[in-house]
Amino acid sequence: MTKKTSAPVANRVPAERTHHGDIVIDEYAWLAAKDDPATIAHLTAENAYTEARTAHLEGLRAELFEETRRRTQETDLSVPSRKGGYWYYTRTVEGQQYGVHCRRAVRDGETVPPVSADGAPLDGEEVLLDGNLLAEGHDFFALGAFDVSPDGRWLAYSTDFAGDERFTLRIKDLSTGEVLADEVPDTFYGTAWSVDASVLFYVTVDEAWRPNRVWRHAVGTPSTEDVVVHQEDDERFWVGVDLTRSERFVLIDIHSKVTSEVRVIPAGNPTGEPALIAARRQGIEYTVEHHGHRFLILHNDGAEDFALAYTSADAPGDWVPLIEHSPGTRLESVDAFSDHLVVSLRSNGLTGLRVIPVGDGDAHDIDFPEPIYSVGLDANPEYRTREIRLRYTSLVTPDSVYDYDLVTRQMVLRRRKPVRPGPDGRAYDPADYEQHRDWALADDGTRVPISLVCRAGTPKDGSAPCVIYGYGSYEASMDPWFSIARLSLLDRGVVFAVAHIRGGGELGRRWYDEGKLLAKKNTFTDFVACARHLVKAGWTASDRLVARGASAGGLLMGAVANLAPDAFAGIVAQVPFVDALTSILDPSLPLTVTEWEEWGNPLADPEVYAYMKSYTPYENVAAVDYPAILAVTSLNDTRVLYHEPAKWIARLRAIAPQGDYLLKTEMGAGHGGPSGRYDSWREEAFINAWILDKLGRA
């Protein structure tokens, strides 16, 4: 029996907001004051309340954690990838939270990646960076950059010990092991070396956490002497930097949500002025890849699902068509190798790879056996190669690494992620599970795909419990993925479903466009339609269905809680964007201005304001019977600030006090939650124990 405890009460002076004649009172705005002792006290009290309310699940949490640990090969080694004279790989060691990054020299005649027994270190390995040593004394640790120079001498790496994605950049001399005095604080993701490794390019952010500057740093000099190579003043845009696979050019990518611009610097002349590939035009997106005498341009100019063209590398100008637009086949990226191009695409809701020989030979798509799967290129650092590495997975197939011969079309499995025997001692067998593709019918008649996995023989009579997962924003696709922790749910009879709702990119650019801006509500109604369909089709019943989503998927969770509270027995909202209108109204907050092309600008447009207000979860809490809700957040999250779920839970308790609402805050983490793998497993065990409790399977 759960011990009776009292929920924390959030009572402070309310704040007032006025926009377009609308006056809004926010009783819990004070929770945004991160440094206020009252805020920390409130979050601490919420954590204590959550722990007390879930104390009866402590044994189940330990059991689920142990099942994940037991099934995972803790001491392990990734498939080494070759770059120049070295094989690069990462090891994990039993009992250690973080990976160990290593390399080993290629030996004479060695063409196949070396392997070791049970993940042991390779003979002759060189440790480049040990995350466990770097993390000592810190509750959180994350790498931002990990970039070996073209000559293999230098390693540029950056670290974050808070979870706020502000990294300190350093350079290590791999020939001596010395970390140079070169140190740059407050950097962002993205680095690029000059071809002679004398110069390192990196990125910093502005006060709103927008990556807005690319810098040039000469190795061995103080960071105070670094030079700004590009500064982006338009607040809708952000910047990135990368070195082409050919190592001929440094690319400066400049993007908004709907518009792109790329500038290039010859990697052999790092002090040169960036040259413009094509000036930005509103609504036109393009990316650039270098290939011999040309730049490949993947673009949407007159091509909703994108087309591929090229222009001269010496004098960029007109775009010459290479792959014409084909509606329904979304071209997502192109990777150039000396004698082949590989295009990553999606069609009919599935990912794919198309190989295009340079010169003689026909293009072909690589075939895969399962009806539902996810495939993409892995690390492929070598430009001159006839072999590429790809990753493959499905809901029942563990992550698999293949090498594919671009000429003979032979594919060799290099490694499949081991799944060790579970608590019953049986080895993992994909045949013990089933995966299915189903379709729901949305309110407007649109067919929405659903991917499902369950134990073989699970009845379709409505008796099985189910978890339905969704995201539906930013054209991000929730392609099928394998999860060891999920096996603990499946083995307890739970069905796991992924709703591929509009706002994502599963069915091409149209699918995304129909779930954003003033069509955003399609995302929410699609998800409810999927939930209703699962019940109608006999997969589950509404009192046996838990919904789960994170970040923008947390907005989805809050929206469907208001839209159809009767459809779910429980809702898990991780780092949820539930106070979206308030955040998008504040240009000083991280990412707000860059988000206006995703959600609309409610500051400038009364229609957008009214539309967002009509669906934002925090604005629409009502006195109804909500399902049980678990909100999980992190104090140092810079993408979705912790106070959004904190305010949401407080308002739910005040307006619908009969409900069961819990808030769990990681006090030393960021958007991705705990950083160490064991801590992540414990977090997942906590959530899954709560889910099983609400499904009656605890």
UniProtKB/TrEMBL annotation:
Pfam families documented for this protein: Peptidase_S9 (PF00326), Peptidase_S9_N (PF02897)
Origin superkingdom: Bacteria
Transmembrane segments: none
EC numbers on record: 3.4.21.83
Keyword set includes Hydrolase: yes
Family to which the UniProt record says this protein belongs: Belongs to the peptidase S9A family.
Protein name per its UniProtKB record: Oligopeptidase B
Lineage: Bacteria, Bacillati, Actinomycetota, Actinomycetes, Micromonosporales
